[in-house]
Amino acid sequence: MAMISKKKKIYPVSKNLRTYLRDQDREVALHITYNDLLRFDNSIPLYDKFGIDTLWETVFYRQDDMQSVHLSLKEIYGKLKAHGDLSIMEHLYIDRIDLCVYGNTRPLRVRIVNNINDNFDYFYIKQADASRIYGLELEHLLSPNRINYIVDGNTLIEDHIAGIPGDQFIKYHLKDKSLNEIRLAKEFVKFNERCFVRLLGDMHSSNFVVEVTPDFEEVHYRLRAIDFDQQSYEGKRSVYMPQYFRQNNPLIELGLRNMTPTTVEQYQREERALISNRIISAKGTIRRLLRAMISDELSPGENAEQLKQELARFYHDPEFLQCNNMGEILKASLSRVVRKVAL
Question: What is the largest CA-CA distance in the chain?
Answer without folding.
Answer: 64
